[in-house]
Amino acid sequence: MSAGSSLPYRLRPNKAVDRELFLSLLMRLAPALSLEKYQYVGLGGPFLEDFRLVHARLGLKVMTCVEAEEQVHKRQQFNCPIASIECIHRTLEDYLDGHEFKVPAIIWFDYTEPKGVTTQIERFARTVGSVPLGSVLRVTLNANPSSLGKPDPSELSVEIDGEESSDRAVKPTIQEWRLARFKERLGALFPSGLTAEGMSFKTYGPSLLRALKLVVEKEMLSFRDRRVVWALGTHYADGQAMVTATLVVCAAPDTSIEGLVKEWEFYSTPDLPHRLDLPALSTLERLTMESHEDPREKMPFDLPKSDMGEDPFSVFKKFYRIYPHFSRVEL
Amino acid sequence: MSLQTQDTAIAVPTKRFFVSMLTRDITLADAILDLLDNCLDGALRLANGSDVDYSQHFVNIKLAADHFSIEDNCGGIPREVAINYAFKMGREPDDDRDSDTETIGMYGVGMKRAIFKMGREALVRTRNADDTFEVPITSAWLEAKGWDPLPINEPTEAGEKFAEPGTVITVRNLYEGVSRHFANEAFENEVRTAISEHFTMFLQWGLKVDLNGKPVKPVLVEVLVSERDDGPAPFVFQKTIDDVLVSITVGLNTGRGLGDDEEEDSGFERDRSSATAGWTVLCNDRAVIVGDKSRLTGWGDGIPLYHPQFAIITGIIEFRSKLADKLPVTTTKRALDTSSNVWLESLVKMKEGMRVWISYTNQWKNHPRADQTNFWEDARPLPLRGAIAAVTSRDATKKTDDYVEFNPQKAKVLPEPPGKTPSSRRIVFSRPVEEIRLVSKMLFDIDDQRPGIVGEKCFELTLTKAKKQDG
Lengths: 331, 471
Description:
The complex is a heterodimer.
Chain A: H1 13-33, E1 39-42, H2 49-58, E2 62-67, H3 70-79, E3 85-89, H4 92-97, E4 105-110, H5 117-130, E5 136-142, E6 159-160, E7 163-164, H6 174-186, H7 204-220, E8 226-238, E9 240-251, H8 256-262, E10 274-276, H9 283-291, H10 312-319
Parallel strand pairs in A: 1-2, 1-4, 2-3, 4-5, 8-10
Antiparallel strand pairs in A: 5-9, 6-7, 8-9
Chain B: H1 15-21, H2 28-47, E1 58-63, E2 67-72, H3 79-86, H4 110-118, E3 119-128, E4 131-137, H5 139-143, E5 166-174, H6 176-182, H7 185-198, H8 200-204, E6 208-211, E7 214-215, E8 223-226, E9 235-241, E10 244-252, E11 278-283, E12 286-292, E13 313-320, H9 341-364, H10 370-373, E14 379-382, H11 384-392, E15 398-399, E16 403-406, H12 433-444, H13 451-470
Parallel strand pairs in B: 1-6, 11-13
Antiparallel strand pairs in B: 1-2, 2-5, 3-4, 3-5, 6-7, 8-14, 9-10, 9-16, 10-13, 11-12, 15-16
Helix pairs in contact in B: 2-4, 2-7, 12-13
C-alpha cells in the first residue's frame, strides 16, 4: 500500500464513485451468482472501508484482508469492523500462491504503485485462469503517465498542431519518449499499433486497459472451460490517475451472466471505460443539478473542467445517483 | 539379382498426409503471413521486372469466428497458372515463373497449407487482367480419397466481379480452435504485430494492409548513425556470397538500456528491451526474424548470452537474391536455414559486429547514461540501407570490389567513458518500504524519495564517518 492511498475517501470523490459502481455491479450479480457464499479478498487499507461495505450490502462472511506492511496490518486488526474478517500479513501475490479457493471469490487487486505494472497485469491475467468459475476479479492500476519516468527536458522536442521545435527530427516528444518506455516495460505484452497519442494524461489510462485486456484475452486462449465477461471499466483522477477493470469468470457455455451484465446501466469495458470526473459542488449546486432537467439555465456560470477535460454537467448527470455527499460530523 | 514383376507399389502422397501433417509445421499466424507473402509476390510479378509501387496495392484481412478472408489488388492469378500450378500440392521443376524476380515463394505449398490449416471450405476468386474465375475447395473434396482436379467456375453476378485485378480467398467451416483464435483480440494483436514486423519494409514503402478494418503500421528497425565523419556509427558489412547479396549492420538502437534501476519490476529481472533489440533478418525485404536474442543469431556462441545489458544493441542482416532457394529460409519463411553456407559465413561477421557493441556496453556499464548522451546527440536512427549508405560515404570505410566493411572500434569513432578503468562497484540491497520511507523522511523531509537515492545518501554519510575515523 502506498502512502497516497490512505487518503480518506471524502477527499477522493471520484474514487468513491468508482467503488459505488463496483458495489452496484456486485448487487446486480448477487442473486444470479449467490455472492453471499463467496470469499472476498482485498487490500483494505487501514480502515477496511470496502470490507465493511461489501459485508453490509452483500452479507459476505468469508473475508480476507491482505496487507504487506506490518504497522498497517496491526492497525487493520485494531480497526477491523467485522469479526469474520481475517487479516493476513503477507503480500497479495504470496497469499494467492499459497491459497486454494474452496468457493468462488471476489478479488480486488488494488494496485496503486506504478512500478511493476507488467507484473501486476500478468498476475491479474494469470488469476483469471486459476480461480473457481463464477469468480469476480477487479484490478486497479496506476494510470499516471509520468510514472513512466521523467526525461531530462533537453532530451525532448516539442510538436503541437504541426508546429515543431527545430530539434524535432533527432529528439522524441514527451509522448514518444513515454511510448518507448511503455514498450520496454510491457515487452511482448505491448498492444500492436499503439501510438504516442495514447501516452498523454487523458489517454494513458485507456492504453493501459488495452494492454490489460489483451493479456487476459491471450490467457483465455489456454482455457476451454471458462470465458471472461468484462463488466466495468473506469478511469478517474483524484490527483493520481487510476484505471480499473472488473470481469466475471463464467463457465464457457454460460451466457446468462453476460446478458445480465450488458443490460446494466453502468456496463462498460476496458475499451471504453467510464471517465469519472465529477465536479466539486456546493450543496445548493448539487440539489439544483439534481432537480432540474437543464440546470445550466438555473446556474448562469461555467463549472471548471478538470485535467480529464470532461463536461461537468454531463458527468454529473450520468452518476448523480451515486455521487457521494460528505459532511462534517462531530463525535 | 532381381526379377521385375507385374506388381507395383503405390507411391503417391495421401491427402490426409498433406492436410494434417503439413499443417502442423506451421502456426496459424504464420499461415496468414504466408498468404500475405503470396499477395506481395503477385505485386512483384505484376510489375514485371520494374520497381513495384507498393502504395498502389492493398491487402485486407478479416479474422472472424465464422470465416477468414484476404483480399488484394495484386494482379490476380492467371488462368494458365491456376490450371497448371497454383492448386498443385508442391511446385514442379518446370514452373519457372519467378526466375528473374525476387519473390520468396518456392515450394508451392503456402496457400494450400494456409487454407487447410484454417477450415474445410474455401473459395479462391480471382481476376487477372479481364479474366475472372473462382476455384472452390469443398469439404467433400477434402474428405475424398483421390486427387480429383478442382473445378474452375466463372461467376455470373455483377457483384461477384472485381473492380481491379486481384484475388479474394475466403475460408469457412473453420476448425474449432481456429475459430476461437480468430475471435480472440489477443490473437488479432499477435497477427498485427507479426505483420508490422515481417512486412515492415513493404509497409514503409506504402503498402496498405488492413486487419479487421484497422491499418497495420510498420515497426521500424533502426540503428543510430552520427552525421559527423568521426562520430559514432554502426558496424557495417556488405558482400555477395553464393549469389546472395548480404548486408549487415550492428549498432545502438534508441532504447535506454538499463540506466534506471528504480523502475525495474520487482521479483525477477525482466527483459524490457524493445522488440527490435537483438537481430532482425530480412530476406528479399521480408523480415524473417525480428529481434532475435537467442543462440540462433550467435548469442552465447563465442560471445556472451543475451542479457538485458545488451538491450540497446540492434543488428540487421539482409539477404537479397533472385534465386529464392539460395536464401537461408525454411518453408515457413519465418525461420532460418542455419546450415546454409551463406548463413554460416554471415554469422562470423554478425558476431564481429556484436563484439564491438558488447565491449562498448561493458565499458559504459558503471557510468551514468548522461555521460555518453553528448556523444550521440547528432545521431539519428536509420534503417539498414540508410545506415549502410551513410557509413559507406565515410573515408574510414574499407571498400573493395568484393566487399564493404566498417568497424567503428577500429575506426576509433566510439566514445570512451572518462577515466577508462572505473573502480565503481554496484551495491544492491533490499529493505522494507516502511523503513525506506522513514529514512527518506529524515534525510529529505519527504517520505517518497527514490530508494536508490536514499541508499546512496546513507552510504555517503557512513563514508564521511569512515574517512574521519581513518584520518
